[in-house]
Write a structure and sequence with these properties.
The chain has 305 residues and is α+β, with helices and mostly antiparallel strands. Helix content is 24%, strand content 41%. The chain is flat, with a radius of gyration of 30 Å.
Length: 305
């Protein structure tokens, strides 16, 4: 029995080590793919020069697929392809967008715990009842473009400073350094929607087609993995339409918790740190192993009885 229990303990330790190694990677695996579509037009009898990698917005995208060729003349005069860019793209990177790409920021709402520090001056005494017990904030605090924030916060800490004394040296004026604490809702940039537009005339010009020479167009799809955005509660505040021959989904359906939906998970990993996820999985593995050990001991005791 002692040898068997030692084996179970060894299995438990191995399970914990494997879980600790795997779970952080799984927590970070919820990355979002940015897809960029680019047209290539070529003359009949030629082969399109499709690069395996392209640089867009200062980042490298890798080729993942190429569509079947279609006669350029049969395509709509104007064609649009929609992509979604991470909010982590800098203004410098966005300024490198091709001329035929229109970028639109999409905003959403989130919630966060905050401390707001205030100084309340010219108080006649240090009576806490003179201070507002709750405060509603509605302002722009510099977090992202036009990052409006609001929330009802509760008085949490007070520290008084004597700022005036009378002729006898007795404090006659105070300044209260106050911290209001609570949850606020804020507006945050979720992502950028990019719409790339191609026209038949431009495509034929790129192929340098001569009179009477047919041209064909293929659509190359490039991808790259973007870092996961901050976990957000709520829905996108603004959505831009933009469908085309091969467009993406509606931007208005995006939310901060949408990452898990990409992987068909019933919950979001965005609010769980890798360490926390590893700890939860480790405890679950330990509980399962101990349950198996307990069942075995119960069976053994019954057999001996």
């Amino acid at each position: 029995m002692f040898i068997y229990e030692r084996k179970l303990i060894l299995i438990l330790l191995l399970t914990i080590m494997c879980t600790m190694a795997m779970i952080p990677g799984a927590a970070y695996a919820a990355a979002e793919k940015t897809t960029f579509k680019q047209e290539f037009t070529y003359r009949e009898g030629e082969t399109p020069n499709i690069q395996k990698e392209i640089s867009q917005f200062g980042r490298v995208f890798t080729l993942v697929s190429v569509s079947d060729p279609v006669a350029t003349a049969s395509l709509p005069q104007n064609r649009s392809y929609t992509t979604r860019l991470s909010a982590a793209y800098t203004p410098g990177q966005l300024s490198r967008a091709p001329k035929n790409v229109k970028l639109t920021p999409v905003y959403g709402t989130g919630k966060r715990q905050v401390d707001r520090l205030e100084a309340v001056k010219e108080l006649p005494d240090n009576d806490v009842d003179r201070l507002a017990q709750r405060k509603v904030y509605k302002d722009t605090n510099g977090r992202g473009p036009d990052a409006r924030a609001s929330g009802e916060l509760v008085l949490a800490e007070v520290k008084y400073e004597v700022t005036g004394r009378d002729a006898d040296g007795i404090p006659s004026e105070y300044t209260a350094h106050v911290i209001y604490r609570g949850e606020e809702t804020y507006r945050k940039l979720l992502f950028y929607e990019g719409v790339t537009t191609y026209t038949t005339a431009d495509a034929e010009a790129d192929a340098k087609a001569g009179e009477g020479v047919s041209t064909y167009t293929v659509v190359a799809t490039y991808e790259r993995e973007e870092a996961e955005n901050d976990g957000l509660d709520g829905q996108a505040a603004a959505g831009v339409g933009g469908s085309g021959a091969e467009g993406g989904g509606s931007a208005g359906e995006a939310s901060g918790g949408g990452i898990s939906a990409l992987f068909s998970l019933p919950f979001s990993l965005s609010g769980i740190s890798p360490v926390g996820a590893a700890a939860i999985a480790t405890l679950a593995a330990a509980a399962l192993t101990l349950l198996i050990l307990g069942l075995y001991n119960r069976r053994r005791l019954r057999a001996e009885a």
